[in-house]
UniProtKB/TrEMBL annotation:
Residues 1-17 form the signal peptide. Keywords: Carboxypeptidase, Hydrolase, Protease, Signal. Its EC number is 3.4.16.4. The gene is dacB. This is D-alanyl-D-alanine carboxypeptidase/D-alanyl-D-alanine-endopeptidase.
C-alpha cells in the first residue's frame, strides 16, 4: 500500500508553488503539460504577461502553418506595358515582389535567365519596384544602437539575400583577393589585404577589417592562405537600392543591358505578365531557417505574408495579427495576455504568457502540421541555437530559444523514447537574465527529469 501511495504521489506531481532553484519568485514564468492527454504537469507564474523574445516566433509559425499550409510558396512576377521588339523592351519593367524571405542571388539569377529566354535582352526603361503587396510592415523600436546589425534588417517585399552582401576571399598567385557577391555597381571594393600566417582560418573576421566610406568598402588585414574560400557578410544600402543594383549586376552578367534607373510604382491594371515565378522554398522550409537560427527578418515576413493572404483592413501587419487572433478563437485558446509588435520577438513591447504560448504549442503538436513545426525547432546539443546547450537531456528535446536584454527563454517540447511528449515553456524576465542562462537550462532539464520519473512510475505501477 505504501509503495502504491508513493507512486501515486510521483504521478500526480504538484504544480510549482515556488520558483525553480536559482530564481527569485518574479524572475521566471514556467508552464509544462503533456501533449497526449489533458491538464498540466508543472506551472509557475504561468499567466503572467512576459516578454518572450524570439520564442514569439512559435506563435507566428503556428499561425502561418494553419493559415497558409506548409507547402505555401511566395510568387514574384515581372510585368510591363511596353512593347517588346527584337529583344528590346521599349519601356519600364515592373517587378512585383511579395516578400519571399529566401530570395537570394542564385534564385534571382535564375528568374532573370528565364526572362532572357523569353526574349528580353535590353530594358530601355526603368526597373519599377511594385511594393503594393504589403501596406504597413510594423516596427521593431528600441534597437537604435543595433540599427546596422543584420538581425534588425526590416522585412521588404523585394528582400534579396536578407539585404546583405558577401565578401568572398580567394588567393591569386599567393596574393589575397576579395570580391563582393552579388556585385553591386554602386559599391567599389578597395582591397588592402596582405598575406598572413596561420594554419587554420575559422571565422575570417578575425583577420580582416571592413570599413565603409560612402560607396567604397575598404578591406584590410592579414589573410592566411587557409582562408581561401572563406566569406563574411556586410550590410549595405537600403533595400530598394540593394534590389536594383543586384538586379542590374546579375542582368548584365547574363548578357542583358539596362535597366535605366529605379523607381517605386504600382503596376497598371493593363500590364501584361512577362514572367511569373514561384519561390524555390516552401513555408515549411523557411520555418526551419527561421526557428533554428532565430531569423527576425524571416519571421516578420512570414506574419506579413499571412496578413497579405487574409486582407481586411488595408494594414498588412494588422491583418496578420487579426488572422492570428482569429485562429486562437477558433481553437478555443485565450487571446490574452498577448501583445504583438512584429511577431518575431525582436521587440521591447511584445508580451505573452507561458500558458498561452504552451497551449499554442500543444495545439500545434496535436494538429496536422505538428511534424513541420517540430522539425523547425533546434535539437538540443545538435543544431541551431541549441547546438551547445542541453545535449545531456535524454530523449528528443526541441526548443526555440529567445534572447534579448533582460530576457532569456526556451519553448518547445521533449519526447520520451516511448513516444509521450511534454510541452515546455520557460521565460526569464530579469535584469540578470543573461547570468541566469545556466539556471534556465537546469530548470528545463529538471522538469524533463521529473516527467521521466512520472512516466516510469506510471509504467511500473501499471497506471
Amino acid at each position: 500500500m505504501k509503495r502504491f501511495l508513493l507512486l501515486l504521489a510521483v504521478v500526480a506531481a504538484p504544480l510549482y508553488a515556488a520558483a525553480p532553484a536559482g530564481f527569485d519568485d518574479d524572475e521566471i514564468a514556467l508552464w509544462a503539460a503533456p501533449v497526449e492527454g489533458g491538464g498540466e504537469f508543472e506551472a509557475h507564474r504561468a499567466d503572467a504577461a512576459v516578454n518572450p523574445a524570439s520564442t514569439m516566433k512559435l506563435l507566428t509559425s503556428w499561425a502561418a502553418l494553419n493559415r497558409l499550409g506548409p507547402n505555401f510558396r511566395w510568387q514574384s512576377e515581372f510585368k510591363t506595358t511596353a512593347a517588346l521588339v527584337d529583344g528590346v523592351l521599349q519601356g519600364d519593367l515592373y517587378w512585383l515582389g511579395r516578400g519571399d524571405p529566401r530570395l537570394d542571388s542564385a534564385r534571382l539569377t535564375e528568374m532573370l535567365r528565364q526572362l532572357r529566354l523569353r526574349g528580353v535582352r535590353d530594358i530601355t526603361g526603368r526597373l519599377l519596384l511594385d511594393q503594393s503587396a504589403w501596406q504597413g510592415i510594423g516596427t521593431a523600436e528600441g534597437f537604435g544602437g543595433d540599427a546596422e546589425r543584420v538581425f534588425t534588417v526590416a522585412p521588404h517585399t523585394h528582400q534579396l539575400n536578407l539585404k546583405v552582401a558577401w565578401l568572398r576571399y580567394r588567393f591569386d598567385d599567393g596574393r589575397p583577393q576579395v570580391a563582393l557577391d552579388p556585385p553591386l555597381p554602386g559599391i567599389s571594393v578597395d582591397n588592402r589585404l596582405q598575406l598572413g600566417d596561420g594554419a587554420s582560418c575559422g571565422d575570417v573576421r578575425r583577420f580582416v577589417t571592413v570599413a565603409q566610406q560612402g560607396a567604397r568598402l575598404i578591406v584590410s588585414g592579414r589573410l592566411p592562405p587557409a582562408c581561401d574560400g572563406a566569406a563574411n557578410y556586410v550590410n549595405l544600402l537600403d533595400s530598394n537600392e540593394f534590389a536594383q543594383q543586384a538586379f542590374a549586376a546579375l542582368w548584365q552578367q547574363l548578357g542583358g543591358s539596362g535597366p535605366r534607373g529605379l523607381a517605386l510604382a504600382s503596376t497598371p491594371p493593363g500590364a501584361r505578365s512577362l514572367l511569373r515565378w514561384d519561390s524555390a522554398d516552401t513555408l515549411a522550409s523557411v520555418l526551419v531557417d527561421m526557428n533554428k537560427y532565430s531569423n527576425n527578418t524571416m519571421a516578420r515576413s512570414v506574419l506579413l505574408t499571412v496578413g497579405a493572404q487574409y486582407p481586411a483592413s488595408g494594414n498588412t501587419l494588422a491583418d496578420g495579427e487579426r488572422s492570428l487572433r482569429g485562429l486562437l478563437a477558433e481553437r478555443g485558446l485565450p487571446q490574452q495576455p498577448l501583445t504583438l509588435e512584429n511577431g518575431a520577438g525582436l521587440s521591447r513591447r511584445e508580451r505573452v504568457s507561458a500558458r498561452l504560448l504552451g497551449e499554442v504549442l500543444r495545439d500545434a503538436l496535436r494538429g496536422a502540421y505538428g511534424p513541420e513545426l517540430a522539425a523547425s525547432l533546434p535539437l538540443a546539443g545538435e543544431d541551431g541555437t541549441l547546438k551547445k546547450r542541453l545535449g545531456e537531456v535524454g530523449g528528443s528535446l526541441r526548443l526555440k530559444t529567445g534572447s534579448l536584454d533582460n530576457v532569456r527563454a526556451l519553448a518547445g517540447y521533449w519526447q520520451a523514447p516511448s513516444g509521450q511528449r511534454l510541452v515546455l515553456v520557460a521565460i526569464v524576465n530579469s535584469a540578470r537574465a543573461e547570468r541566469l542562462t545556466p539556471q534556465l537550462d537546469a530548470a528545463v532539464a529538471a522538469v524533463v527529469a521529473r516527467y521521466q520519473a512520472r512516466l516510469a512510475a506510471a509504467a511500473a505501477g501499471g497506471l
